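Internal QA ticket QA-208
Title: Verify multi-chain structure generation after dependency bump
Assignee: T.L.

Test input:
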Amino acid sequence: MMQETISFTPQLAASPIAGLLWLIPALPMVASGVIALLKQPRRKISATLSIGSLSFSLLLSLVAFGHVLAGWSHGAAVRETVNFTWIQFGSVHVDLGWVLDPLSAVMLVMVSLVGLLIFIYSVGYMEHYENFTRFFCFMSLFAGAMLGVVIANSLLLLFMCWEIVGLTSYLLIGFWYQKPAAAAAAKKAFITTRVGDIFFLLGIVWLFAQTGTLLFYNGGAGSLEAGALSGLLAQPAALGLTAAGAIGLLIFAGAAGKSGQLPLHVWLPDAMEGPTPVSALIHAATMVAAGVYLIARVYPLMQAGALTGGTTAALTVVTWVGAATAVFAALIAVAQNDIKRILAYSTISQLGYMMAGLGMGGVAVGMFHLITHAFFKSLLFLGAGSVIHGCHGEQDIRKMGGLRSDMPLTFATYAVGMLALCGFPLFFSGFWSKDGILEAALHWSVARTPLYLLVFGALLTAFYMTRQVAYVFFGYWRGSKPADESPAVMTLPLVILAGFAMGLGFIGTPAWPWFSGFLESRAVVFNLHGFLEPGLLALMGISTLIVFLGLGLGLMLYGGQSPKPEEPDVLEQAAPVVWGWLRDRLYVDELYGVTVIAFYAWWGRVADWLDRRVWGGAVTGVAWVFRGWAQFNRLLDLNWVDGGFDKGCEELASGGGLLSRVQTGRVQTYLKILALAVALLAAILIWSSRA
Amino acid sequence: MSIAFYLIAALTLAGGLAAVLLKNTVHCALALTVAFAGQALLFLDLDAQFAGFAQILVYIGAVAILVVFAILLTKGSETPKGSVYSRHSFAGLVIAAAVFAMLGWAVIHSVAAVPRGPAATPSVTVLDIGNALMSRYVLPLEIVALLLTAALIGAVIIAMHEKERAK
Amino acid sequence: MTPLAGFLLVAALLFSIGLAGALTRRNAILVLIGIELMLNAANLNLIAFWRYGPHPEALTGMMFAIFSIAVAAAEAAVGLGLVIHLHRHAHTTDLDAMNRMRG
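Actual output:
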């Protein structure tokens, strides 16, 4: 039973919270705007505005969640939309709107809760840094935009908020812009995600052209509803795809850029140049999850045309890319020495898991891992931030050690997060969410390879996290100054997140799959027989084994050891060539540098040459023609006109001079002339009279 | 054409030539006097006695003396250094020759219209001249009187020493 | 050669001599002398034409000549006065030196 969609009119809204849903992203954005307009940097005001607005958004999100939950518990599939026309050209109109359904409700709560905890943490972390106010301005803007992505009912509105999220990511990665590495990383992030976004935009345009609307749900007329989808399926595109599949792949390209999937993952590790709270919020929990959320949101489009038990070309691509990314990133993470870089590659790897989960198992599988990952990854990042804070800015794990005793609370929470990430059985959320994905891989109809890849990835995950924890918290201190525990404002969020990292798992167990039921609007009962599905217990056993294997290997190689930074790593000694490849990130950046970037640099030079020589030359040529003409005119003027005139005057003057010689001033000359004239006249008279 | 005519003519012409050719200006003035005298004799030959005596009185008695005075007052009595002829004097000579050529040619080729031969000697008395002056020619007489007065005053004004302008 | 022609030729010659003198001599006074000679020649012409003309009893020629003599005397006086005045300023009677009116 679906609730009717509501067209936006100023005076009525069927469900009050749906009508007020726009406040959730608007409040943090307004807070950001107010902070931006402050004349002087004010720490207290900016922090208060940001935390206050996001708390209010959290409150509203909880109310919305409660509303949906109440509807769900009464057997209603809630999907309330509020749509309005934004632009109208003739008969074509572009609509925007927002939607309140289980998917958006869950994301709202997650984003605002994790965001709020990270904001509180930032107050402590950023205390010793400058530009505190600017930080909170950008963070608020990000929070508002991310919440906008989550509630958008229009692909256009989603894209607009998506772009703002990208902008704030750029601004926050390059927060310490005086550092050249940070500025370069910000640029790289923006450009790489832009490549994805171009395909995304193409998908949006194609979808609009094909279906005439960009709204997801619009009382049957939305682009994700049956009518539009059947139209898209009927339209063939290239390579044996239908329009639906092609558009889905284009949208996935955008998601791949934002979520760091394989070819476009290069920006994420460099994004660690930003402050740690930024890495936690944006590059672990939320922004990178936006790509996964996007696929989940347009899942009907991705899934359109799938036969029962089968899958579509688009989802197959998503799965393969996800699985490949998971393993690729995990391999590189093994050989990294920067505490945040390891976590960055881990994030990329886990995003691959999420994409694979979406592709093979559906929205609930992928989203569950997204939610759990948000909590434990942000916990890990904040913990890493606490470690960096305590080690006075040191980020190399080979220069840490023994922090178990110096920073006990950080260690405890970090250990919880690490175990959740590895998927330690039963009491850690990561186990349940990752197992959901492995189960979906097990039952995938196309191939078994993703399963093997994901299992191998799980092994690597356990291994490299153990290595990191061993280097940082065990052994003995290798740094310069002794380390201190962080203040309560930083450790309290860690504790809260640790609680979630442990407890969230229980909403998605096979015995009580509440999460998937909530998302898919199905009734759920607690049933231990859920564990008896074929192959499930075996799979759980295998994944447990893998985790212990990875942990054991890690402890064996690294436990208790604290090699000096100059000494090579144990694995490096064993396989130096492979270690070298992994440490150098499998040369993807270098490949881009040689191909794409080199091409663009060459193209830029060609364009510059064209501009300066050809177009500039043409312009210069025209200018020279005019100059020549002007010179010619000048010469003409000088020699002919002026010269002629001058010459004429000169001749006249000299002629006058010559003539004036007649006036000798001497009387006798005049007399001579007179006499001559008289003589001549007389002669003439006489002659004429004679004749 | 008696001998007397030729002699007198020769005298006049010689005087004239001398007047324009001599280097010393005073000699020129004196030669001029001789030319005037010759002229007077020619007048007498032409039975114009009054004119002849008027010539002697006025020309020799006044003009020639004036010329001599002028020469003396302008220190012209010194022998001039350099040439006495002006620049381009040859052109002047040529022009004078041309004039003479024209006049002479005109005279020789046109006198036929006038009756030749000695006409009757006119008897002109001073009484006749006086009567004519007072009757028919009274206006020219008065004008000439005016002219002479003006010339007299003018010559005096022109020739006298300028007073220094009182400052 | 009629007597008239003879007198006319003498007059012409005298005129030319006077003209030559006026045109060729450097001294201003000699120019005036030349002019006097020219006037004399003109007077001779007048008297000659009176004597050999149709009506000598009308006295026209004689009168003309007498007036001419009077005017010549006046002109000589003024002219020589001018020469004297000029000499006072230029300290010379050289006509070649007096070319301040030249163009």
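Spot checks passed. Chain C touches chain A at residues 19, 22-24, 28, 31, 95-96, 98-103 (CB under 8 Å).
Status: verified.
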